[in-house]
From TrEMBL:
Keywords: Hydrolase. The keyword Hydrolase applies. InterPro entries: His_Pase_superF_clade-1 (IPR013078), His_PPase_superfam (IPR029033), Mito_Ser/Thr_phosphatase (IPR051021). This is Phosphoglycerate mutase. Pfam families: His_Phos_1 (PF00300). One of its GO terms (molecular function) is hydrolase activity. Transmembrane segments: none annotated. Gene3D superfamilies: Phosphoglycerate mutase-like (3.40.50.1240).
Length: 220
């Protein structure tokens, strides 16, 4: 039996979410985000002797998190990029309001949830449909699982929406309830999925006690 460790990216700057102007030279994470990812790497190094594969999505915050996590390991597998682990893009109607609302977390979340509900129902457009997002998340998980043979450990760094959607699929949670699952994920938290003959089995979700203990846990 193998295992896939899914790590949500560390805290990212606002422009990573399409809010404000992005500096092409800016790092994918904030200073706190790097600290979160390194602390998660330290915990994983106590739990896992080595990773046999290391995968990230193609977003800067996901790549930066993977490299920061792996700093805790003497032996590091080659970095593999699988863009199917990327986060969903904001629905089109939110792109014009995101910058104004991002500073007010509660207001931003209300508008985001409304936009996501429309996207899931097919009444809100985006760069991809929700059905396409669902399919690519499932495909990415299957590819990671294929690398997690008997006794093998795979590291994946992704985002809350993508990891949350995978967990929702594995637990049979209706698509309409997926956003509520995703917004509980803490930056640099760990979700563990076992890979066996019967398929994928979730054994832990959103582990972040190591971050909370040092008071560096954040949601955004």
């Amino acid at each position: 039996m193998g295992a896939v460790y899914l790590v949500r990216h560390g805290q990212a700057p606002a422009h990573a979410y399409g809010v404000g102007e992005a500096d092409p030279a800016a790092p994918g994470l904030t200073e706190l985000g790097f600290a979160q990812a390194r602390r998660t790497g330290e915990l994983l190094a106590r739990l896992v002797p080595t990773f046999d594969a290391a995968i990230s999505g193609d977003l800067p915050r996901q790549r930066a998190t993977l490299f920061a996590v792996l700093e805790a390991f003497d032996e590091r597998p080659a970095h593999e990029v699988d863009a199917d682990w990327d986060e969903y893009a904001l629905p089109a109607s939110l792109m014009t309001t995101a910058a104004d609302l991002y500073a007010d977390r509660a207001a931003y979340q209300r508008v985001l949830d409304a936009g996501l509900n429309g996207w899931i129902a097919g009444t809100e457009s985006g760069e991809e449909t929700f059905v396409e997002f669902l399919a690519r998340t499932r495909a990415a998980a299957q590819r990671a699982a294929a690398l997690a043979g008997s006794g093998r450990n795979v590291l994946v760094t992704s985002s809350a929406g993508t990891i949350g959607l995978l967990i929702a699929q594995l637990w049979g949670i209706p698509p309409a309830d997926w956003p509520a699952v995703s917004r509980t994920f803490v930056n640099a938290s760990i979700t563990k999925v076992l890979v066996g003959r019967s398929g994928l089995t979730v054994v832990s979700v959103n582990e972040h006690g190591h971050l909370a203990a040092d008071r560096i846990a954040t949601f955004r």
